[in-house]
């Protein structure tokens, strides 16, 4: 069970690495066979530098040199033999499909090595071409030309980039509008706060004025009361003095 788990982890690691390093090659021929080709060549750049004839017999060097020594038939395929395409081809067409598949693998490895962006679009279209070639060998249906297929892929990628740019531009505009709306809301909120502060200050001033008026009126009443009481006391004193004189 531990070995099975370890194998699964290794396979997941291989899939993730192949999707990062050589997505088109993995889409065309599979993760395992693509990784074997890269490891046998030494690196992706070395594999990209190989011609398709060399890539076709990678892994079958012993058989090749033996055939050269004995002047026998050279091998038709090496590590590519593990691909499902060669297994699906008839015995008569195995060499043909191996040559065609090696051609597509060299194209895919060069795209992965030297392209700026990593996409599986080229690998998927190359896989479709190999499928069409198998149908051509079995049923005689004419496949599409490689130039037309590559043009179609490039146009699709350009359209996707344009759509992304338009989406990004619209997203930026919406963000700007949102930012402007938020700024306007903040300005409105600050203005409302200022108005509220002014209103409260005015109300406070009015209430203070009213209090001052009330206090002044209360002071005047007290003064009048004191003046009346003084007059009364004076009158009483006068009346007392007059009684005394009498």
Automatic annotation (TrEMBL):
Major subcellular location class: nucleus
Pfam families for the chain: Nop (PF01798)
Domain Nop: 21-139
Gene Ontology cellular-component annotations: box C/D methylation guide snoRNP complex; small-subunit processome
Tagged with keyword Signal: no
Region ranges (Disordered): 161-246
MF terms (GO), sorted A to Z: snoRNA binding
Keyword terms: Nucleus, Ribosome biogenesis
Basic residues bias spans: 230-239
Biased composition (Basic and acidic residues): 161-171, 198-208
Record GO biological process: ribosome biogenesis
Localization, UniProt: Nucleus, Nucleolus
Family membership noted in the UniProt record: Belongs to the NOP5/NOP56 family.
Name of the protein this chain belongs to: Nucleolar protein 56
